[in-house]
Amino acid sequence: MDPICHGVADVVLGSRFLGQTINIPLPRRLLLGAATWYTRLTTRLSVTDTHNGFRALSAAAAGVIRIRQPRMAHASEILEEIARHGLAWQEQPVTIRYTEETLAKGQTGWDAARIAGQLLLGRMLR
User: Fold this and answer.
1) Longest dimension (CA), the chain
2) Tens digits of per-residue pLDDT, 99-110?
């Protein structure tokens, strides 16, 4: 929250790749790397972690960011909105521990494909 409270950023994004990632399965790491590469290409934001759920928005950012995508597709949509509105953003390191329980709740490869499809459809309908 410090970057927002000090007026340095409108949005703060958590990044497991600036912090620690404990027991991440290789397929998950590769999938997240591909998502980050895609986001960098499409938004020109040099993020290190596209789908980290740790995010904080200033009141001004919350007032302009529009979320239309369901489920986890909103994570990429928020980044597109940051780029579209030229919001100041920063990443902060976070620690993510992968366990059997957290992996059972997380996204699958099929979920990632569905998210990509939702984002593409959303762009075409704009």
Assistant:
1) 40
2) 888 777 666 666
Spatial contact of 11 and 56, defined as CB atoms under 8 Å apart: yes
Q: Is there a domain that residue 114 lies in?
A: yes
Residue 73 tokens, joined: 């597709």
- 3-class DSSP string for 45-106: CCCCCCCCCCEEECHHHHHHCCCCCCCCHHHHHHHHHHHHHCCCEEEEEEEEECCHHHHHHC
Query: Residue 98 burial by CB count (10 A; 0-12/13-18/19+): exposed, middle or buried?
Result: middle
Q: Is the pTM of this model over 0.85?
A: no
**Residue 71 resides in a domain:** yes
Say if residue 31 is exposed, middle or buried (CB neighbours under 10 Å; 0-12, 13-18, 19+): middle
- The answer to whether residue 42 is domain-embedded is yes
